[in-house]
TrEMBL record:
Keyword Ribonucleoprotein assigned: no
Keyword Oxidoreductase set for record: yes
Sections of the chain in a coiled coil: none
Protein's name in the database: NAD-dependent succinate-semialdehyde dehydrogenase
SUPFAM superfamilies to which the protein is assigned, alphabetical: ALDH-like
Domain of life: Bacteria
PANTHER family xref list: SUCCINATE-SEMIALDEHYDE DEHYDROGENASE, MITOCHONDRIAL
Boundaries of every Aldehyde dehydrogenase domain copy: 19-468
Amino acid sequence: MLSIKNKTLLSCLIVQSNTSLSITNPATAAVIGHIATQSKSEINSIIAAADIAQQQWKKTTAKERAVILLRWHDLMMENQDDLARLMTLEQGKPLAESKGEVAYGASFLVWFAEEAKRAYGETIPTPVAGRRLATIKQPIGIATAITPWNFPIAMITRKAAPALAAGCAFIGKPANQTPLSALAVAELAYQAGVPKALLQLVVNESSSLVGEVFCEHDRIKKLSFTGSTRVGRILMAQCAETIKRTSMELGGNAPFIVFEDADLDLAVAGAMVSKYRNAGQTCVCANRFYIHDSVYDQFVAKLTAEVAKLRVGNGLEDGVTVGPVIDENAKNNINRLIQGAVDQGATVAFGGQVLSGAYVDPTILTDVRHDMDIIQEEIFGPVAPIVRFSSDEELITMANDTIYGLASYFYSQNINRIWYVAEALEYGMVGINEGLISTEVAPFGGVKQSGIGKEGAKEGLDEYLVQKYLCFGGLKH
C-alpha cells in the first residue's frame, strides 16, 4: 500500500524503537504503517544536539544556506508524486490537491533561500560626534514548531525554511495523524545537505508533553504553532516562563461576502475553492456566507449547481474531488453542527446526508441566522451556511462579530465599497474578488484571537531573526 519509487522516503518507518505510533488511512480506516516515537529524554538529547549544530550553522553564509535550500526544493519536486501519495494515504485529500500542496510547500524553500540574502541591517545617522550607530540581524537560536494535520508538508516547510535560512536549528512536531509525509520531506532535506542534528522532527503520542518540553526548555528560543486557539493560549502561557518568541496561527471563522454588485460566477468559483478544498479543512476556508438579499437566491442556485458536481471518495481514486475528513470524531462534530442548525431553523438546500466512514456530504444550508451555533463555531468541514443581509453596515457588524480574525473574503465591483469594506473588516487577510489567497510571497497571519506573527513574505524571515543595535564610540576624525 505504501509502495513508492523512492524507498529512502520510507526510512522513517523502519527506525528501531521500543515505542511506535500507528498511522491510519482516513479513507479506509486501515493502518498503513508504524513510526518510531521519542521519549522526553530523547527529545532533550535532540535539543542538545541541535544546540551544537546551530552554533556551526549560524557561521555559514546566507548564500551557502540558500544553495542547500534550493537543492531541497528540487528534490521535493523530483519526488512530488511519491510525497503526494504519502500525503493522500495518511491525510485523505485528493491526489491532485496533495500534489498541489507539495509544490506549495516547496515554494517556501525557494522564497526563503532568496530572502536569506536580504536580511539587511541599517546604519543610523548619529546624534553625537564620535559615534557611529548600526543594526544587524542574527539568528534567534533553536526554533521549534508544532504543525497540524490538514497541510502536513506545507506547514513544515513554511516554518523550517525561514528558520534554516536565518541560521537557526529547527525541531518540529508533526501531527500524530500525518507524520509520514513530513518525515519524508525531512529525509529529502538530509539528502540536500541539511545536517541531521540541525533539522529534526519528533513524534510522541502526547502532544502536550512535546509542547511542554518546547515551551520550557531554556535553549529553545522560538516556538511556532499552527492549530486551535484553545491550545495556542496554553502554549503562550507556558512560553511566558522563559520569555520565548512565539508565532501563533490559530482558529478562524472566515466570512465570505457577496454584495449585490458582485460578479456571481466569479463569486461562486471563489466559494468552491475556498469552502470545499481539502473537504473544508483549512484554517482560512470560508466558514460562513453572507449574501445580499437581492442576489441570495441566484447565488444559492449557482453554488448548488457546482457543489452537485463534487465527487466524494478515496483521494487515490480518479475523479474524486472531496476526500474524507481526518477521522470520525471530526465527522461527528460536523454533522452535529449541521443538525444543530436544522434544529434552530436552517434548511438543508443540498447534501446533508450522513455517509459511512469518515466522509461528510458536501452541504449547503439556507435560512441561516447570524446567531446560530454553526455561524459562531469553526466548522472545518464541507458545509456552507448562508445568511442574508441587506445593508453594508449590517454586514460589517456581523462579519466582525467573532473573536477570530484570520481570513475574510468579499465580492464587489464597486471600488468605493471595496476600499471601505477592506479597511473595515477586522482580519489579517482579505480576499477581494478572490477565494484562494495563500502564497509564499505575501504575509500570512491573523489578528484578534487568530494569532500573532506572520509566515511567508519578508516578514516570515524576521520571525527567526533578532535585531542587534551596535554603538561605536570613541571615534576620532
